[in-house]
Fold:
Amino acid sequence: MDASAQAPRRRWWLFRRQPKIRRHDLASQWQLMWWKFRRHTLAMIGMVLLGLFAAMVIFAEFISPYPPFERNPAYVAGAPQIPSVIDENGNFRWPPFVQGLKAERDKKTLRLNYVPDPSVKWDVGMFVKGEPYRLLGFIPTDIKLFGVTTEGGFMHLFGTDFTGLDLFSRTIHAARASLGVGFVGVVISFILGAAIGGVAGYFGGWVDNIVMRLIEFIRSIPTLPIWLALAAMLPRDWSPLATYIAITVILSLLGWTWLARTVRSKLLATRQEDFVLAARLSGCSDTRIIVRHMLPSFMSYLIVDASIAFPEILLAETSLSFLGLGLREPVESWGVLLFAAQSIRSIDQAPWLMIPGVFVIIAVLAFNFLGDGLRDAADPYTR
Amino acid sequence: MPALAANCATVADTTAVGAFPQQLEIEEAAAAGLTLTYSDNPLFADDVASGKLPPVAERLPEQPLIELPYESCGVYGGTIEGTSRSAESGSADILSWRQVALVQMADDLVTIVPNVARSWKWNDTFTAVTFELRKGHKWSDGAPFGVDDVVFYFEDIVNNKDLSPEPTQEWGKNAHAKKIDDTHVEISFDEPFPGLLTYMATSGSYFTPFAPKHYFEKMHGAYSATADADAKAAGYDTWAKRFDAVWDKWMDAQTLTATGLEVPTLESHVLEIEPTTEQRLFKANPYYFKVDSAGQQLPYIDRVHERFLNADLQLLAILNSEIDFKAQGTTLQNYPTMQESSEKGGYEILMPPGASGPVLAFNITHKDPKLRQIYSDLRFRTAISHAINRQEIDQVSYFDLGTPTQALPPNLTFSKPEDSQYLIDFDLDKANALLDEMGMAKGSDGLRTYPDGSPFTILWEYSSQFVTPEFVKLMSDYFKSVGLNVNAKEQTSEATRENAKAATSDINMEWDIPYEPTLIADISLYTPYYSEISPLFGIGWKQWFNSDGAEGEEPPDWAKEMFELATEWKTVLPGSERYMQIGRRLIDLNLENLTIIGTVGSIPKPIIVKNNLHNVMREMPTVHFNFGYIYPYRAEQWFLQ
Amino acid sequence: MTRFLMRRLAYTLATLLLVSLVSFIIIQAAPGDFAEIYAAKKADAGAVISAAQIAEVRRELGLDQPWYVQYGTWLANAARGDFGQSWTWRRPVGAVIAERLPLTLAIAFATLVFMYVVSIPIGVYSAVRRYSFGDHAASLIGYLGLAIPNFLLALVLMYLSQRYFGQSVGGLFSPQYSLAPWSWEKLQDLLQHLIVPVIVLGTSGTAFLIRAMRAAVLDELDRMYVLSAKASGLSPMQLLLRYPVRIALVPIASTLGWRLTYVISGAPIVGVVLSLPDMGPLFLNSLLNQDMQLAGALIFLYCALTIIGTFLSDVLLVALDPRIRLE
Structure:
C-alpha cells in the first residue's frame, strides 16, 4: 500500500531492536494477525458493531420492549417516541419520560395525528417487567431492558407501522433472519467453495479446467436476475420456513465462486510446499492432506473472502424480499420490513418504516470494515 | 381557444327535456326548439380540406344522439392523461371513457337510456327485443354501421361452432339476431330475459353485441374461401385462431396490439399509434355519433393518453399533477397523501360511496380434498366470521369511514336491515368452540391441526389490487388468535385469477358486490361461482347444473336451489312478486351458508379530477366495475380548459 | 491477435449456449403444470378448461416431447429471434423486448460512463492527496455507496426528486414528451430522468472504482520513473496525467466487463422501483405472472448482454494494451 513512506523508518527500527528477541518472532500466525488487525480502526469499529448485532440476535427478546407481533391499536402509524429528561418548562425530570399522546383525526385529510397531551407523562425505566419470554430459549423471565413503567403508557422508539406493530422490536428480531441468512449462506458458500475449489486445485488438469470454466461462467452471468428467477420458481404453497431455507440456498448457489477461486489458487501454490510433500510421503490420504495440512495454511484468506461474501448475501436477501420474492411474514427480516415500507404512502405518511434500511447499511458497512481489516491482517508477515 | 357555444342547453335546462334524462333524440331537440348547427373538432380540418374525411354533416348519422352537458358545451382540444397498471390491469376505467353499447345506464344508475340504439321494443313474453339503430351511423373507418353488424356478431361469432364451441348464454339462452329492415334488428332467445337491457348497460357494456362485419368477414371461414390459407400465411393454424387473435369479446383487449389500429370501432376515441408496453394513445373518432346541444360533434378532447404505471408511480403522478382523471385503483389509504397535495397538484378528490369493502370466500370446492373438507364445513366459515374484529379493521385500515357488515349487495329492494349484521359479532369464544367442535385440536404451538392431527395452514394469496397488506396482516392476526395458521403471500391479480380458475386458491376475494341493477343483469354474480374473471368457488357445481349432471360435480342442495332460482330469476320481471321472493331466498341461502364472508363495507372511493377537466359529474352515486366505471357519467362530454 | 479473438469468440459462443440452456431450464422449472396454466390463460374469463383443451395446448406447445427436443426447438426458434408469445402482452416476446432493449442499453451505458467519469478523477485526487480530508470523505462516501441497497436509494431519491424538484416520475420522459418527436427539449427531459437511475445504479460501482483507481495510482506514484520525471522538472499536473494516471487506467479499464455485469445485474430492481421503461419491470412481472416465455427470454438476454459486453471489453482491452495478447 504505502511502502515508500514506511521503508526508511522500518530499516531504522529493525536496526535498533535487532539484538533483542522480539515478541513478533515468537508469536503465532493468529496472534500476529490480531495485532495487525487491532491497528485498523475501522475494522475495530466494524467488529464492535457486529458484536452489538450478535447481542441483538441473542438477546432480542430482552432488548425489545414488545413482542414483535403485538399490535398497539392506540398508536397506529405513530412516529418514533424519544424519551426525554427535560419537561416542557425546561426543567430536569427523572425518571425519563415520553409525552402522553392522544389521537386526533384531521377532518380534512383524514390523517390520524397523535398530539401530545401535556397533562400525561409516561415514565421510562430500565429492567422493567414485560411479556414473559425465555431468555436464550430456556431461562423463563419477564424482564425487559427498558420500557414504560406508567400503566397504560407506551413507548415506540422507532414508531409503529400501519397496523400498530412496534418497529423497534421488529427490527431487533428481524436481525435474526437477516444475519441468519447471511451466516448460513456464507457457510454453504464456504463449504461449496472449499470443496469445489479444493478438488480443482488439488487435482489440477482437466478437473481444474472445468471448474475454472464453470466459475468464469457463473461470474459472467448477472446474479440478481438469476436469483429472482430461482426465487420465483419456489412452489407457492411452501411454508415461510421452507422458503427461508430455500432462499438461503439459492443465494449461496452463486456466491461460492470467490471462495473456490481462492482455495484453488492457494492450493496450487501450497501443493509444491515441502510440508505437503512430507505429508504425502508419510502416507496421508488426499482428503487428510487437503483438510489437515493445506486448508489451515491459508484459512485466513478464506475468512477474508467470507467476510466480503456476507454483506453481498445480506443485500441480496434484502433486495429479494423487497421485491416480494424473498422471505415473507411471519418470518421477519430487514428485507421483509422494508417490503412494507416501500410504498410512497409509507414514505409520505410513515417515513420511519425505512429505519430497518439503516440497520442493513450499518451491517454491510461493519462487514466491509471488518473485511478490509482482515485483508490487511491476513498476511501478517508483510510489513 | 374558441369561446363556449352560446346556444347551449345543459342538464339543468328545463325546456330541453326528452323521454330520457340528459339526452335528446333529434325530433325531441326540434320540438324543444334547439337549433343544431353541426360543427366539428379543428383536429379534422386538414383531413376534411384534403378530402380524406367527409365534412361533419356527412360523418354524423342522420339521427345523432344529442347530449346535454353537465356544465356547458365545451371547447375542442387537448390530451387527457390517464394511467393503468398495465395493458390488461386496471385499464377498464380508461376504457369506460370511450365506451359505447346499444344502451346506457343514466347517471342515476337505474334508468336505461338509448345510446348506439335509438330505441327498443320488447315483445310481450320478453323473449325478443327489437332495436332501432341510427340511420347513417358509421364505423370509425367510415364504413356504414348497421343491422348486419349485429347479425354478424350473433350468427357468425356467438353461434359459430369454430369460434365458440360452447355458445355463451350471456345475451340470453340460445340468442339469435334477425334483420327486420335496414334499421331494425331483433334479438331473440328461448327463454324470457327481461334483464337483457340492464345487462347491456352495466357489466355487459364491456362486450358490445356487434362487430364490424366488413372488417372481419375477410378472415372468417363462412365468408372467405381463402380464410384458412390466409390464416396459415399469417402464422395461424386455422382461420378461427387468427380471428380469435384479432377479435376479442373484452373491448379493451382489441387495442392491445397493432391490429387495434385497423379494427374499426364506434367508441369516442380510436387507437392512434401502435400500443407499447408503456402506453396507448387514442384519437377522437371523426365518425362519433353524438353531438352536444349546440351541434358540436363529441368528443371534445383530441386525444386520450394512457400510461402504464405501477401503483406507487400512479400515486406520484397524481401528486405531480400528471393525471387528469383517475377512478380505478385509487385506494382510500392514500387519501391523506393525495389530499395534502391537492392544491399543489391542481386536482380535486371526489368521494362517492363505494359499494363494497373486501370480502373473503373460502374455496369450498378446493382441489385439495383435505382443504375442501375444512372449507366446506359451515362451522369453519362461521368461526372465521366471528373471529374478525371488523371495528378494528375499519379504524386501522379505512379511517373509520366504513361500516362493519356481512357480505351483502347494498341497497337491494328485497333485503332487510338485519341481513348485514348476520353473524358479524366479534366473539372469539364462539369461534374457538366451533373449531373445537370440528375436531381441529390445538397443538403445543397453539395452532390448530386437521381433525386427523396433521398440520393445517391456510395459504392466502392476495392481490394488492383489492386489499391492502395491513388488511391481510390484521386478518392473519385474527385467524391466528383462534389458532389457525395462515401463510399470506402477495401475488399479482393475474396470478390470483389463474389460481382461482384452477380452484387451487384457498381464499378468493375478487367479488365486487353489485347493486340491484347488476343483479337483474347477471344473477350469476350472486350464485356460485360468483365471478367470471376470478371464480370464488363452485365451477364444477355450475358445470354439473348446466349439463344436467353429465359433467362437473354434484353441488350441495343449497347450491342446487340457488342455481334453480337463478335460472328462474332471469325470466321474471324485475319488481314483480316472484322476483322479490327469489331475491329474498337468494340472500337467505347465501347468508345461511356464509358463502362469502364480509368485513367492512360502504368504503368511500377517492376519485381524482383535475381542476381543468370540465363536465365531470360531481355526485356520482358510485363508481363501480359492474356499472362500467365512468360509462354512466358520459366522459365523451368532458373537456379541458 | 486473430487467434486470441477467435478463441475468445468461441468461448463466448459456448457460454451463450450454456446460458440458453439455463434459461430454458428456468422456463421449464416453473411451478405447476405449464399446459394447464397456459390453457387457463388462453381461456376466456370464466370459461372452464377441459382436459382435452389442456392436451391440445400440450401438443401445440410441444410439451409432450422429451426435454432435449423441446430445448432444440426453443433454441432454433430463439436463434431466429422467435421467443414465443407473451401472454400478458398478447404479443410476440421478441416484439415486447425490442421495445425495452434500447433503453436498457442506454441506461447501462450511461451508468458505465457516469461511473468512470466520476471515479477516475476522484480516485486520482484521493491518491495524490492521500489522507487528506477529501480522501477520507471520498472513501466514506464510497463505503456508503457500497452499503446502501439500490432499491432504498432509488425509492428515496425518487420521492425526493418528485417532492422537492417537481420531477415527473415513471419512465424516462414526462408525459408531454413521451409521444413528441425528438427535439432538444426532449433530450433534456430524458437526461433529467436518467439522473436518478444512473446515480442509483452507479453508486456502488463508483465506490469500487474509486478505491481501485486510488490504489493503482498510488502504486505508480511510488515508481522510480515518477521521481526521475519530477527531477526533470515536469509540472506536477503534466506528470500525473502523462504517466501514472495513464498506466493506472489499464487495470481499471480491464474491469469494464465485470462492471457491466454488475450494472446489468442491478438494473432490474432499479427499473422496477423507478418503473423505467427498461426490461426490469417487464422481467419482474413476467416472473410474478409466470409468463415464462417472456421470463426465459429476458434471463437469456440479461446474461447475453453481459457475456457479449465482456467479450467486447476484452477486444477493447487487447486493442489498448497489446501485452495482454501474449497471456
User: Anything to note?
Assistant: Residues 12 and 311 of chain C are 7 Å apart (CA to CA). The longest helix of chain C spans residues 184-221.
